[in-house]
Amino acid sequence: ILILISNIIKINKSCKVFLVDFSCYKHPSTQMCTIKMFSYRVRVLRYFRMHLWNSSKVLLKMITNSCLEDARRDSEMVVFGVVDEILAKSGVEGKDIGLVIMNCCSFNLVPSLSAMIVNRYKLEQDTVSCNLGGMGCSAGL
What we know:
Layout: H1 2-13, H2 35-45, H3 68-90, E1 99-104, H4 113-120, E2 128-133
Parallel strand pairs: 1-2
Helix pairs in contact: 3-4
């Protein structure tokens, strides 16, 4: 009887989640730089250490005054670019979305990035919006 009850609970608890589609942000060619340019920036900044790729979005100009608005603009460019692409690829409309989960380990805004998505794409008022901020990269979805 115990095994039967255990199996019934196990069957009822399983919830299948399907990946409809995914998208990765592709920055515009105006934000690409060569390894030579990147190496120069690394030497100039000294504290900037990361793995070199063939092309990477990097500092194309020296930052003299960084602010929250610049960080917000960069975040919007990436997040909205990905959402635009995923909606176009999947054919899903805003009215069909009931849940938005956003995971960003290093940047927390008010309003949150998930709320910005809900507002930008005019999602339904009852859309559940979850922003997993401040939990680091281990916030796994």
